[in-house]
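I'll show one example:
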Amino acid sequence: MEPLIDTHCHLNDPSFNDTIDDVLERARRKGVVGCVVPSYDRESLARTAELAQLNPDILFPGFGIHPWFLDEKALQELETYVKMPETVCLGEVGLDLSPGMPSRNAQEAFFAAQIRMAADYGLPVTVHCRRAHERVYEMVQPYRDRITVIMHSFSGSVEVMKRFLDLGCYISFSGSVTRETAKKYHRCAAAVPADRLLLETDAPSIATQTTPASRVEPVHTAEIASKIADIRGASYTEVCRRSTSNARCVFGKRMK
């Protein structure tokens, strides 16, 4: 069985509190050897650290404040977690310019502060980007030689993707790509260079073709890999090997 790495899943979400052991066992049986779990708000910082300590063989923590949950106290506490030796990335961070979100100025201030922190600690950054690709590009571009950026659950066009690739970014595909009607995602999955491809579930937030979002978990990384193999005309084995190798390159040698 080819190893898989889910590069973005919120096993720190309260919905997994009573099922985490079963979730991880199902993932292992499907070949998932690593799950990157990014924090998103103040409460999830401690939960993420706890989960990583309880499951060091498979769960790898990231720490960041999501643009939906801006909190000055969380930002003040963040560095304590970021500097933990277990930390594999800074995230989930970014910009979301959808209606009803925190102000653009506030989001940019938090994003800028966290990018600087990632550069200071030599960590990759996993980026949430919605309706903000141009501004995210502008903000990460000055760091192109200092940090590695993962565009989490990428939702832009092929043309936008190529601009981020030129910065050295990695492109991560979630369950959105498995949907038959998601032609934009299919075009990006077909065009992304093999050495920049990552897989993720974003559990429990993004549905796949077969499974509603609330039931998605790391085991569904296999469904995403299978769909991308179909799109690219590649074997399932090749997609697993490439994406897993890329994840280990991005997140570090602890992921064996």
Summary: The longest strand covers residues 89-96. The radius of gyration is 17 Å.
